[in-house]
Amino acid sequence: VSALGALKGLEAQRPAVLWYDAHGDFNTWETTPSGFIGGMPLAMLVGRGDLQYLRGIDLTPLAEDDIVITDARDLDPQEAVALGESRVTHLPKVEDLLAAPLPDKPLYIHMDVDVIDPSKMPGLGYPAPGGPSVEQVLATLRRVIKERPLAGMLFSLWDQSKVTDERALQAVLRMVRTVAGT
Hints:
It is a single chain. By secondary structure, this protein is α/β, with parallel strands linked by helices. The protein has one domain (2-24, 65-180): Arginase, Chain A, CATH 3.40.800. Helix content is 30%, strand content 18%. The chain has 6 helices and 5 strands. It has helices at residues 2-9, 41-45, 52-56, 77-85, 134-147, 167-180, and strands at 16-23, 67-74, 89-91, 107-112, 150-156. It has a 5-stranded parallel beta sheet, with helices on one face. The chain is globular and about 40 Å long.
């Protein structure tokens, strides 16, 4: 849900959104089986469901055509239908980003690190089996930042209390360095 605030701060740039996530985050209060608000922010951003959070920060919904979500391998049934019927671009494999057209505007990147295979990324808040490697994600980030200006980036769902080694921290730092060009 922190993406709402981040995009409010970037609103003047009118960025498109590139959403990396193992989950769709495309539920609404009417479709969610769990009632977990963390599964709704992308739907909220495009004006689906209850708009009280957008109204609360005076954020105009984004056009579905300006949203690209990649992976989203763990979708609830109604969420999958809603995403499939939307104009949001869904790239089921992160590697699809290597060749897919990107919106022609600055990008806000939402990096939910649970997009990465949990066997390679310990400490995930909501792990979902499968997913790309850190290297595959890095390759797509390199392509994206080479072709589009970066408006902003947010990392989410890494739970340090669940981490038993340095792999997760190193993976996140590699992503930050890649985007920062260092």
